[in-house]
Amino acid sequence: MEMIDARKHSSETQYEIRKQVVRLRKQGLTSMAIAEGVGISAGRASKIWQAYIKGGFKAISPGKRGQRKGEERKLSPDQINSLLPCGH
């Protein structure tokens, strides 16, 4: 199967892929075999399995996507304030 860029999938689809990886690992398949069947890399399949082992389904459930408010800004709050006109 051709590998896909999972980032283009919805959170729900990504979660279904993760659950499928867990089901197949429980059946005894290797990460390489799962990767070929599901269309992800073997490393990604292994990371999903390791996360599941450590935290169960909660660890592989969808999280928030995208940058959080105020995260990874280029300027500090003081730098931003120094650029704003007086009175703001």
Summarize the topology.
Elements: H1 11-26, H2 31-38, H3 42-60, H4 77-83
Helix pairs in contact: 1-2, 1-3, 2-3
Using the alpha-carbon principal axes, give the shape.
elongated
- Can you count the beta strands? 0
Radius of gyration: 20 Å
Helix content: 55-70%
In terms of DSSP E residues, the strand content is: under 5%
Walk me through the structure.
The chain has 88 residues and is mostly helical. The chain has a domain at 12-60. Helices cover 57% and strands 0% of the residues. The chain contains 4 helices and no strands. It is elongated, with a radius of gyration of 20 Å.
Summary, kept brief:
This protein has 88 residues and is mainly alpha-helical. It is built from four helices and no strands. It has helices at residues 11-26, 31-38, 42-60, 77-83.
Describe this protein with a few key phrases.
0% strand; 88 residues
